[in-house]
Amino acid sequence: MKNYRRSLPPLDSLIFFEAAARRLSFSEAAEELLVTQTAVSKRVRQLEAHLGVALFLRAGRMIELTESGRKLAGQCATLLDFTESALSGIAARPDTPVRIAANSAVSLFWLSPRLKRFELSDLACPVELVASDQPSALLDSANDIAILHGSGAWPGRVSAPLFPDVLVPVISPGLARTAGIGPGEPLSRLLPQSRPPLLNFPRLTPEWTNWDNWGEAAEVGGWARADCGTYARSIGAALEGRGIALASPAILASELASGALIRLGPAAQSPRLGYFLSHSAQQPPRAEAARLTGFLSDENAPDASSDER
User: Fold this and answer.
1) Is the Cβ–Cβ distance between 149 and 209 less than 8 Å?
2) Of 75, 94, 119, 144, which is most buried, counting CB atoms within 10 Å of its CB?
3) DSSP code for 97
4) Is 171 exposed, middle or buried (0-12, 13-18, 19+ CB in 10 A)?
5) How far is residue 265's CA from residue 185's CA, in Å, rounded to a whole number?
6) C-beta neighbour count of 4 within 10 angstroms
7) Model pLDDT for residues 99-127, shown as the tens digit of each residue
8) C-alpha neighbours within 13 Å on the C-beta side of residue 130
9) Is 241 exposed, middle or buried (0-12, 13-18, 19+ CB in 10 A)?
10) Angle at 279 (CA atoms; ends 93, 97), nearest 5 degrees
Protein backbone atom coordinates (compact mmCIF):
# COMPACT_ATOMS: atom_id res chain seq x y z
CA MET A 1 0.00 0.00 0.00
CA LYS A 2 1.42 3.35 -1.05
CA ASN A 3 1.67 6.22 1.41
CA TYR A 4 2.30 9.31 -0.71
CA ARG A 5 2.25 11.52 2.36
CA ARG A 6 5.42 9.83 3.58
CA SER A 7 7.19 9.24 0.29
CA LEU A 8 6.48 12.55 -1.46
CA PRO A 9 7.65 16.00 -0.39
CA PRO A 10 5.14 18.85 -0.02
CA LEU A 11 4.08 19.46 -3.61
CA ASP A 12 4.36 23.22 -3.32
CA SER A 13 8.10 22.78 -2.74
CA LEU A 14 8.34 21.34 -6.27
CA ILE A 15 6.67 24.49 -7.64
CA PHE A 16 9.23 26.69 -5.87
CA PHE A 17 12.10 24.45 -7.00
CA GLU A 18 10.94 24.43 -10.64
CA ALA A 19 10.81 28.23 -10.80
CA ALA A 20 14.24 28.62 -9.15
CA ALA A 21 15.81 25.95 -11.37
CA ARG A 22 14.39 27.51 -14.52
CA ARG A 23 15.55 31.02 -13.64
CA LEU A 24 18.68 30.08 -11.65
CA SER A 25 17.71 32.82 -9.24
CA PHE A 26 15.78 32.70 -5.96
CA SER A 27 14.87 36.38 -6.28
CA GLU A 28 13.48 36.02 -9.81
CA ALA A 29 11.56 32.90 -8.78
CA ALA A 30 10.12 34.85 -5.84
CA GLU A 31 9.03 37.65 -8.18
CA GLU A 32 7.33 35.16 -10.51
CA LEU A 33 5.53 33.38 -7.66
CA LEU A 34 4.61 36.61 -5.85
CA VAL A 35 6.39 35.58 -2.64
CA THR A 36 9.57 36.62 -0.84
CA GLN A 37 13.05 35.35 -1.67
CA THR A 38 13.21 33.91 1.83
CA ALA A 39 10.08 31.85 1.16
CA VAL A 40 11.64 30.35 -1.99
CA SER A 41 14.90 29.54 -0.21
CA LYS A 42 13.01 27.93 2.69
CA ARG A 43 10.89 25.71 0.42
CA VAL A 44 13.95 24.59 -1.55
CA ARG A 45 15.79 23.67 1.66
CA GLN A 46 12.73 21.68 2.81
CA LEU A 47 12.84 19.77 -0.48
CA GLU A 48 16.58 19.13 -0.14
CA ALA A 49 16.07 17.89 3.42
CA HIS A 50 13.32 15.51 2.30
CA LEU A 51 15.45 14.10 -0.53
CA GLY A 52 18.69 14.10 1.42
CA VAL A 53 20.66 15.74 -1.41
CA ALA A 54 21.72 19.24 -2.35
CA LEU A 55 19.89 20.61 -5.38
CA PHE A 56 21.76 23.92 -5.70
CA LEU A 57 25.32 25.09 -5.21
CA ARG A 58 25.19 28.47 -3.48
CA ALA A 59 27.91 31.07 -3.82
CA GLY A 60 26.69 34.34 -2.31
CA ARG A 61 23.75 35.51 -4.40
CA MET A 62 24.64 33.13 -7.25
CA ILE A 63 23.13 29.65 -7.46
CA GLU A 64 23.88 26.71 -9.72
CA LEU A 65 22.16 23.34 -10.09
CA THR A 66 23.95 20.27 -8.80
CA GLU A 67 23.86 17.03 -10.79
CA SER A 68 20.89 15.88 -8.68
CA GLY A 69 19.24 19.25 -9.21
CA ARG A 70 19.62 18.97 -12.99
CA LYS A 71 18.03 15.51 -12.99
CA LEU A 72 15.09 16.68 -10.91
CA ALA A 73 14.63 19.87 -12.93
CA GLY A 74 14.34 17.85 -16.13
CA GLN A 75 11.43 15.85 -14.73
CA CYS A 76 9.79 18.37 -12.42
CA ALA A 77 8.27 20.54 -15.17
CA THR A 78 6.78 17.44 -16.80
CA LEU A 79 5.37 16.28 -13.47
CA LEU A 80 3.73 19.65 -12.82
CA ASP A 81 2.33 19.79 -16.37
CA PHE A 82 0.73 16.35 -15.95
CA THR A 83 -0.68 17.36 -12.56
CA GLU A 84 -2.20 20.55 -13.96
CA SER A 85 -3.66 18.67 -16.92
CA ALA A 86 -5.21 16.00 -14.69
CA LEU A 87 -6.84 18.58 -12.42
CA SER A 88 -8.08 20.85 -15.20
CA GLY A 89 -9.77 17.88 -16.85
CA ILE A 90 -12.15 17.36 -13.96
CA ALA A 91 -12.58 20.75 -12.30
CA ALA A 92 -13.43 24.08 -13.87
CA ARG A 93 -11.81 27.07 -12.24
CA PRO A 94 -14.21 29.76 -11.03
CA ASP A 95 -12.82 32.19 -13.59
CA THR A 96 -13.06 29.78 -16.55
CA PRO A 97 -15.17 31.59 -19.17
CA VAL A 98 -18.48 30.15 -20.31
CA ARG A 99 -18.01 29.34 -24.01
CA ILE A 100 -21.08 30.06 -26.11
CA ALA A 101 -21.09 29.43 -29.86
CA ALA A 102 -23.39 30.77 -32.57
CA ASN A 103 -23.29 31.52 -36.26
CA SER A 104 -21.90 34.87 -37.36
CA ALA A 105 -25.23 36.65 -37.87
CA VAL A 106 -26.74 35.46 -34.58
CA SER A 107 -23.51 36.43 -32.81
CA LEU A 108 -23.36 39.94 -34.28
CA PHE A 109 -26.99 41.00 -34.25
CA TRP A 110 -28.78 38.93 -31.58
CA LEU A 111 -26.29 37.55 -29.09
CA SER A 112 -23.70 40.32 -28.64
CA PRO A 113 -26.15 42.93 -27.27
CA ARG A 114 -27.54 40.37 -24.85
CA LEU A 115 -24.09 39.32 -23.69
CA LYS A 116 -23.37 42.97 -22.94
CA ARG A 117 -26.50 43.22 -20.80
CA PHE A 118 -25.64 39.93 -19.10
CA GLU A 119 -22.14 41.14 -18.23
CA LEU A 120 -23.61 44.32 -16.72
CA SER A 121 -26.12 42.37 -14.60
CA ASP A 122 -25.79 40.75 -11.19
CA LEU A 123 -25.60 37.35 -12.95
CA ALA A 124 -22.38 38.22 -14.76
CA CYS A 125 -19.52 35.79 -15.25
CA PRO A 126 -16.65 35.59 -17.79
CA VAL A 127 -17.99 34.66 -21.24
CA GLU A 128 -16.14 33.63 -24.41
CA LEU A 129 -18.06 33.97 -27.69
CA VAL A 130 -17.28 31.57 -30.55
CA ALA A 131 -18.72 32.95 -33.81
CA SER A 132 -18.62 30.52 -36.74
CA ASP A 133 -20.77 29.41 -39.65
CA GLN A 134 -19.21 25.93 -39.57
CA PRO A 135 -21.49 23.35 -37.88
CA SER A 136 -18.49 21.43 -36.53
CA ALA A 137 -17.27 24.52 -34.65
CA LEU A 138 -20.68 25.08 -33.09
CA LEU A 139 -20.90 21.45 -31.96
CA ASP A 140 -17.39 21.41 -30.49
CA SER A 141 -17.40 19.72 -27.09
CA ALA A 142 -15.40 22.63 -25.65
CA ASN A 143 -18.48 24.88 -25.97
CA ASP A 144 -20.68 25.06 -22.87
CA ILE A 145 -23.64 26.37 -24.87
CA ALA A 146 -24.42 26.56 -28.59
CA ILE A 147 -27.17 28.35 -30.47
CA LEU A 148 -28.01 25.94 -33.27
CA HIS A 149 -30.25 26.13 -36.33
CA GLY A 150 -32.20 23.00 -37.18
CA SER A 151 -34.98 20.73 -36.01
CA GLY A 152 -33.89 20.72 -32.37
CA ALA A 153 -32.89 17.04 -32.43
CA TRP A 154 -29.12 16.54 -32.22
CA PRO A 155 -27.70 13.24 -30.89
CA GLY A 156 -26.30 13.59 -27.38
CA ARG A 157 -27.64 17.11 -26.87
CA VAL A 158 -30.40 18.83 -24.90
CA SER A 159 -32.05 21.71 -26.76
CA ALA A 160 -34.65 24.37 -25.94
CA PRO A 161 -36.32 26.54 -28.61
CA LEU A 162 -35.41 30.21 -28.96
CA PHE A 163 -37.37 31.34 -32.02
CA PRO A 164 -38.73 29.80 -35.25
CA ASP A 165 -37.04 29.95 -38.64
CA VAL A 166 -38.76 32.92 -40.30
CA LEU A 167 -37.17 34.77 -43.23
CA VAL A 168 -38.48 37.98 -44.79
CA PRO A 169 -37.01 40.33 -47.40
CA VAL A 170 -35.43 43.47 -45.91
CA ILE A 171 -34.17 46.64 -47.56
CA SER A 172 -32.58 49.91 -46.44
CA PRO A 173 -34.87 52.98 -46.36
CA GLY A 174 -32.84 54.80 -49.02
CA LEU A 175 -32.88 51.90 -51.46
CA ALA A 176 -36.60 51.39 -50.80
CA ARG A 177 -37.29 54.97 -51.86
CA THR A 178 -35.18 54.56 -54.98
CA ALA A 179 -36.92 51.30 -55.90
CA GLY A 180 -40.36 52.70 -55.09
CA ILE A 181 -41.46 50.13 -52.52
CA GLY A 182 -42.84 50.63 -49.02
CA PRO A 183 -42.87 48.69 -45.73
CA GLY A 184 -44.68 45.37 -45.91
CA GLU A 185 -45.22 45.50 -49.67
CA PRO A 186 -44.50 42.27 -51.59
CA LEU A 187 -41.53 41.93 -53.89
CA SER A 188 -43.93 41.40 -56.79
CA ARG A 189 -44.74 45.10 -56.42
CA LEU A 190 -41.36 45.98 -57.99
CA LEU A 191 -41.12 46.47 -61.73
CA PRO A 192 -38.20 44.71 -63.53
CA GLN A 193 -36.40 48.00 -64.22
CA SER A 194 -36.44 48.99 -60.53
CA ARG A 195 -35.48 45.68 -58.92
CA PRO A 196 -32.42 45.86 -56.64
CA PRO A 197 -30.15 42.79 -56.64
CA LEU A 198 -30.86 39.97 -54.19
CA LEU A 199 -28.04 39.57 -51.65
CA ASN A 200 -27.34 35.85 -51.56
CA PHE A 201 -25.09 33.58 -49.48
CA PRO A 202 -24.02 29.91 -49.65
CA ARG A 203 -26.05 27.15 -47.97
CA LEU A 204 -23.58 25.45 -45.64
CA THR A 205 -26.03 22.71 -44.64
CA PRO A 206 -29.14 21.32 -46.40
CA GLU A 207 -31.31 22.99 -43.75
CA TRP A 208 -30.08 26.52 -44.51
CA THR A 209 -32.32 28.82 -46.54
CA ASN A 210 -31.20 31.40 -49.08
CA TRP A 211 -32.84 33.00 -52.10
CA ASP A 212 -32.55 29.72 -54.03
CA ASN A 213 -34.88 27.73 -51.74
CA TRP A 214 -36.77 30.46 -49.89
CA GLY A 215 -40.52 29.81 -49.63
CA GLU A 216 -41.30 32.27 -52.45
CA ALA A 217 -38.18 31.46 -54.52
CA ALA A 218 -40.18 31.09 -57.75
CA GLU A 219 -41.27 34.71 -57.40
CA VAL A 220 -37.69 35.97 -57.69
CA GLY A 221 -36.32 33.39 -60.12
CA GLY A 222 -35.21 35.92 -62.74
CA TRP A 223 -33.79 38.59 -60.43
CA ALA A 224 -30.13 39.61 -60.43
CA ARG A 225 -28.13 38.26 -57.49
CA ALA A 226 -25.04 39.41 -55.63
CA ASP A 227 -23.01 36.78 -53.77
CA CYS A 228 -22.06 38.04 -50.30
CA GLY A 229 -20.06 35.04 -49.06
CA THR A 230 -21.85 34.70 -45.71
CA TYR A 231 -25.27 35.40 -44.28
CA ALA A 232 -23.86 38.11 -42.00
CA ARG A 233 -22.25 39.88 -44.98
CA SER A 234 -25.58 39.87 -46.83
CA ILE A 235 -27.14 41.73 -43.89
CA GLY A 236 -24.22 44.17 -43.84
CA ALA A 237 -24.69 44.85 -47.55
CA ALA A 238 -28.42 45.41 -47.02
CA LEU A 239 -27.66 47.97 -44.30
CA GLU A 240 -25.37 49.72 -46.79
CA GLY A 241 -28.19 49.91 -49.36
CA ARG A 242 -26.64 47.49 -51.84
CA GLY A 243 -29.63 45.16 -52.31
CA ILE A 244 -32.39 43.12 -50.68
CA ALA A 245 -31.47 40.50 -48.07
CA LEU A 246 -33.34 37.68 -46.40
CA ALA A 247 -33.49 38.29 -42.67
CA SER A 248 -34.84 36.74 -39.49
CA PRO A 249 -37.06 39.31 -37.71
CA ALA A 250 -36.01 37.84 -34.37
CA ILE A 251 -32.28 38.17 -35.09
CA LEU A 252 -32.61 41.66 -36.59
CA ALA A 253 -35.26 43.02 -34.21
CA SER A 254 -33.13 46.06 -33.29
CA GLU A 255 -32.35 47.00 -36.91
CA LEU A 256 -36.02 46.71 -37.87
CA ALA A 257 -37.22 48.63 -34.82
CA SER A 258 -34.75 51.47 -35.44
CA GLY A 259 -35.66 51.75 -39.13
CA ALA A 260 -32.15 50.85 -40.31
CA LEU A 261 -33.87 48.12 -42.33
CA ILE A 262 -37.44 47.93 -43.65
CA ARG A 263 -39.35 44.66 -43.69
CA LEU A 264 -40.96 43.77 -47.01
CA GLY A 265 -43.14 40.79 -47.90
CA PRO A 266 -43.98 38.02 -48.06
CA ALA A 267 -42.62 36.12 -45.06
CA ALA A 268 -41.69 32.45 -45.31
CA GLN A 269 -41.49 30.21 -42.26
CA SER A 270 -40.18 26.68 -41.99
CA PRO A 271 -42.69 24.69 -39.93
CA ARG A 272 -40.08 22.30 -38.51
CA LEU A 273 -36.89 24.39 -38.17
CA GLY A 274 -35.79 27.05 -35.73
CA TYR A 275 -33.01 28.29 -33.47
CA PHE A 276 -32.26 26.44 -30.25
CA LEU A 277 -30.19 26.88 -27.09
CA SER A 278 -28.31 23.61 -26.78
CA HIS A 279 -25.79 21.88 -24.53
CA SER A 280 -24.30 18.41 -24.14
CA ALA A 281 -26.53 15.77 -22.56
CA GLN A 282 -23.52 14.00 -21.05
CA GLN A 283 -23.34 16.32 -18.08
CA PRO A 284 -25.45 19.21 -16.76
CA PRO A 285 -24.15 22.71 -17.50
CA ARG A 286 -22.11 24.27 -14.73
CA ALA A 287 -23.75 26.99 -12.67
CA GLU A 288 -22.33 29.90 -14.70
CA ALA A 289 -23.51 28.38 -18.00
CA ALA A 290 -26.95 27.71 -16.52
CA ARG A 291 -27.20 31.39 -15.45
CA LEU A 292 -26.36 32.55 -18.97
CA THR A 293 -28.82 30.11 -20.55
CA GLY A 294 -31.59 31.29 -18.23
CA PHE A 295 -30.79 34.94 -18.94
CA LEU A 296 -30.93 34.44 -22.72
CA SER A 297 -34.19 32.50 -22.48
CA ASP A 298 -35.81 35.17 -20.30
CA GLU A 299 -34.65 38.02 -22.53
CA ASN A 300 -35.76 36.35 -25.73
CA ALA A 301 -39.50 36.13 -25.11
CA PRO A 302 -40.45 39.83 -25.63
CA ASP A 303 -38.31 40.15 -28.76
CA ALA A 304 -39.65 36.96 -30.32
CA SER A 305 -43.31 37.69 -29.66
CA SER A 306 -43.24 41.09 -31.35
CA ASP A 307 -41.60 40.04 -34.62
CA GLU A 308 -42.27 36.38 -35.39
CA ARG A 309 -45.74 36.46 -36.86
Assistant:
1) no
2) 144
3) P
4) buried
5) 5
6) 7
7) 999 999 999 999 999 999 999 999 999 99
8) 21
9) middle
10) 25
